[in-house]
Amino acid sequence: MSNSVHVYDARADHATVNAQSPLAYSFQRSGMPAPGEEGRAVVGERAFLGHLILRGGAIVLDEALREVLGIGLPGRPNSLTVDADGQRSVQWLSPDEWLLIVPGDETFGLETRLRAHLGGSHVAIVDVSAGQTLIELTGEAAHGVLMKSTVYDVDPHAFTVGKGVTTIFAKTSVILRRPDESRWELIVRRSFADYVYRWLLDAGEEYGIGVARESRHESQ
Amino acid sequence: MFHIYCPYCEELREEEEFHPKGQAHIARPEEPDACSDEEWGDYLFFRDNPRGIHHEMWLHAVGCRKFFNITRNTVSYEILETYKMGEQPTVGAEHLAREEKTAREGKTDSVQVAEGGQQTVGASDAAQASVKGA
């Protein structure tokens, strides 16, 4: 049996393909209310990022990641490591599973370099970029919106910066994390993105929730 | 609304995130071909349903998605410990026996110990008799 892995760039060439973010349809159908004057709660999508699932032993993956990306693997449960400019992050998902998020156009190159570095090690790298999307929640009332939606303790003192968990959110599951003081990130499955978006608009209505317009939800 | 300690996430998480997955520590027969039908049937289909201490597998389904073990009292629903797969429980039936002994010596009114050594909480003889249809 051959031991080789067939790797190919699954990312659409945005110059020729009109890719749509998982929330593109929701923005049209459910609307994008503008954030209130105070902007107490603002939701936004960071579309087309590269999501890689790393599975395997912590030591071998940590070594490869430090070498290739310059950031270490978080060893503690429910923790998150973000690089200096906040563009790349690694999150602990389970004792042998991590989620790596990088800018979309770096994904394939990174995967290739990681594979080259890991050689024949017993690991798996899966590109799940197309299967999920990242929703960002900011503003002083952000944590109020979360409290209405999840059973997990999102008190800012308990849910400190650098923490990330997979938990129940509005009857579905999300990866919830806090990369810095002002931002919460929700990673939702593509098929649940519309549901979670509409839930957030509804839950955030009392806080005057609005939608931050990202330059690119659809590439031309 | 109660919390279960996940030994992999190392924190207490909401019950909603977990699924029970039945009896733990069931060893697959070393040589299935050499088993009698009864032994194989026991392994495949027959599970304990004890009144008292039970070692169970649970799955942290929304979370780390790992199986782990719980030692649970099926009478009081109290979770006595949780431990990782491959580990052995530190709490067993003797824990319950010890508790019963303490209760018996303490002669508390709220806890009664039935003849079979099982703990019945807050039940009078008359109430028990009516439940059993005697």
Q: In angstroms, what is the radius of gyration of chain A?
A: 18 Å
CATH superfamily of chain A: Probable tRNA modification gtpase trme, domain 1
Q: What's the helix-strand series of chain B?
A: EEEHEEEHEEH
What would you give as the CATH superfamily of the largest domain in chain B?
Answer: Folate-binding superfamily
Secondary-structure-based class of chain B equals alpha+beta
Fraction of residues in β-strands of chain B? 25-35%
**How would a crystallographer describe the biggest sheet of chain B?**
4 strands, antiparallel
Q: How is the CATH topology of the largest domain in chain B named?
A: Folate-binding fold
Total of DSSP H or I helical runs spanning 4+ residues of chain A: 5
CATH architecture field of chain A:
2-Layer Sandwich
The top level CATH class name of the largest domain in chain B: Alpha Beta
Which percent bin holds the helix content of chain B? 10-25%
The tally of strands of chain B reads 8
**Which regions of chain A have little confidence, pLDDT < 50, spanning 5+ residues?**
none
What would CATH call the architecture of the largest domain in chain B? 2-Layer Sandwich
CATH class of chain A: Alpha Beta
